[in-house]
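Help! Submission page says 'invalid entity' but I think these are all valid:
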Amino acid sequence: MENNREIPYKIYLEEHEMPRQWYNVRADMKKKPAPLLNPQTMQPITAEELEGVFCKELVKQELDENTAYIDIPEEILSFYKMYRPSPLVRAYCLEKKLGTPAKIYYKFEGNNTSGSHKLNSAIAQAYYAKQQGLKGVTTETGAGQWGTALSMACAYLDLDCQVYMVKVSYEQKPFRREVMRTYGASVTPSPSEKTEVGRRIREEFPGTNGSLGCAISEAVEAATTQEDYRYVLGSVLSQVLLHQSVIGLEAKAAMDKYGIKPDVIIGCAGGGSNLGGLISPFMGEKLRGEADYRFIAVEPASCPSLTRGVYAYDYCDTGKVCPLQKMYTLGSGFMPSASHAGGLRYHGMSSTLSELYDQGLMEAVSVEQTSVFSAAQEFARVEGILPAPESSHAIKVAIDEAIRCKETGEEKTILFGLTGTGYFDMYAYQRFNDGEMGDYIPTDEEIAAAVAKLPKI
Amino acid sequence: MENNREIPYKIYLEEHEMPRQWYNVRADMKKKPAPLLNPQTMQPITAEELEGVFCKELVKQELDENTAYIDIPEEILSFYKMYRPSPLVRAYCLEKKLGTPAKIYYKFEGNNTSGSHKLNSAIAQAYYAKQQGLKGVTTETGAGQWGTALSMACAYLDLDCQVYMVKVSYEQKPFRREVMRTYGASVTPSPSEKTEVGRRIREEFPGTNGSLGCAISEAVEAATTQEDYRYVLGSVLSQVLLHQSVIGLEAKAAMDKYGIKPDVIIGCAGGGSNLGGLISPFMGEKLRGEADYRFIAVEPASCPSLTRGVYAYDYCDTGKVCPLQKMYTLGSGFMPSASHAGGLRYHGMSSTLSELYDQGLMEAVSVEQTSVFSAAQEFARVEGILPAPESSHAIKVAIDEAIRCKETGEEKTILFGLTGTGYFDMYAYQRFNDGEMGDYIPTDEEIAAAVAKLPKI
């Protein structure tokens, strides 16, 4: 453990060491996340009600708070082997550059064509849709990682994939769109003429650039009005955290293999899919009193749901068609600034992570984007990986922690999640390289105004 | 060997199994490649003459035909550990899709930020420049992979990196440019006002889009007119094949570990860096009579130097400032069509590969780009990796071989090089997705006209 020379730059598990079950952290929580509410009745939603929108097996996973381990189906395990195990990397070069006594590790999820961890849940959701005999799935995408991941999963399983892509992204990120098309997905700029809600929004707001909330509404309508289609979502939901637990399970297995115990675990947090997945098995140990860890959620200062939001029931989408959940939220009407970390521009947070945070089991910090891009650049130059802006939020805080160790002389072991690569984010890097990037922090008044519109429950 | 179940999807060597020496295939060639010629005297060039342009140690490697194994310096080994070993992947999903009895493997070099194998030589060339106490290096880049790789290597070693990027690429691929800038390189659109040759060309051809030949000339001028700078090149040279032998050495070690022997080894060929690196150790066995393999070089039908060129002395660059080498060439004045595989648009071929081909030790085929993109798409959908257009040339021929095995029932083992990813090539994919991609095959007359202008030696 103390002999650094024995720890390789990258730890890859053998295939037979890969997890064969997902871990459901809710099973070890004494106080569970609050139940989802039906937006019509404001009563806890039933499985039957959810099954009109989501696949049956996924509804079961969504509502299951008690089963700790769920078998990963063989076909999903095979797909995982195409791009997993992902490496656990010892950041020797970054440590040297910082001159820190800290030991820094990162779990790198970017080595697949979707460019992020999103594929872990996309293949699971597509698999259950296929198992149910469906023709296809619908979804929305903003920045494009989730849409890309779902396209890949659907191409593999020969399932139709319909993606509603926020219009401004569709136009500004034509290459993301082309990756999805190469994988056979149909990509529609939202709002579109294809759905009733899309037509209504276009009439009401001529020339609108679209929004994630609107794209969700269109995707849900498309799923519920076509026979044998269901809607799928890439974050926030408990089922997504379940699938993403594969990140944490692999990281823990790799660390256990070399006798490494992290002191602090850091992840960026938008809807919570990556952070929830990374920390799950470690949090399980903490909940069971077997070990202690510090957990830090890193969010953008421009969209600080945990650090400046309220813990309340709220709509998950702007169109208010999805179930409500109790979460840290800035209000579903909160409009985050056009920051360059599209994957973190979500008004709320996973109900599980929200509850853990509320119980004081997890910390949260917010960071500004120019400092995030500085950290990204420093990291890229010594570690050789060009990180996604979202992932770079975790890098920023990991570097801060390592510098603190340098000051105190502590040899802490830091683990952070490097969720993806920035190959499709070069416009943001260009703004940074040209010194044209700014920061935006919402005022207390702006947040108060959005929070004031929360539903009264 | 026959038990497929024992072979994992991806074979990763352990760090201690990684090669610690490069292999110089020329050492095992009875008839060596013809010597480089000085463009002024047309006599074999001396080390001293080359050292004005290239680093001393690299000149030594360039001219060394007899040392079979050369130690990889420790600092380069450390850098390799950041992104190597690269996986040897068993293409189980592709085999299943094709229904072939063939066993298909590929060595995947795309899992690093440069997106290709180019980093293997970039770090070596940057390292020797640093060792020599130089301030920086200059180079040209067309598609951008080489420039990106060199930027990464220079950032790691704190060496200045000046890239002359063909103007049309600079404008059409702003994101490639931004990756290089993020790694601290200065990127100049070529032809520029910075060099004499650049100014001359701009005067002569106002509004020109630039060309690789012109960018090389500018980079060489920049290297020779600044104190403590040298010029570096990403392909064609023997030193590059030497560094790239790490691909083949790793592939062979991984295959040996599992008792796998390839029957046929396939790689795309532009200047020859990837193909030369991949086949080197296998070719060594063939040259020494220890084993037999089929080797297939795949080139674009639009730029068919091996299959339709002549074996003769030619200039390596359009500006005629670099040494001449004997190679299969279409003539340095040959203008390949604007195909989407920028990395394969080179008029000549590595002198080592040219000599091996001339001796009948290697085969070559040319393929058209629409068939290449069809293969790329088919591959991407089942193997989950979006390949670069260059790499997809090898995929196309590997699939053809596998289909032939299906027809004959042969259980051949196929190995091909997957040199990189296509994240910065989505414009090409878009053309393909939209059905707007064409093919271009030069006429015999066009080739004859270019070949007629070869220097008389």
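Support: the input was valid. A stray whitespace character was the problem, and the output above is from the cleaned input. The mean pLDDT of chain A is 94.
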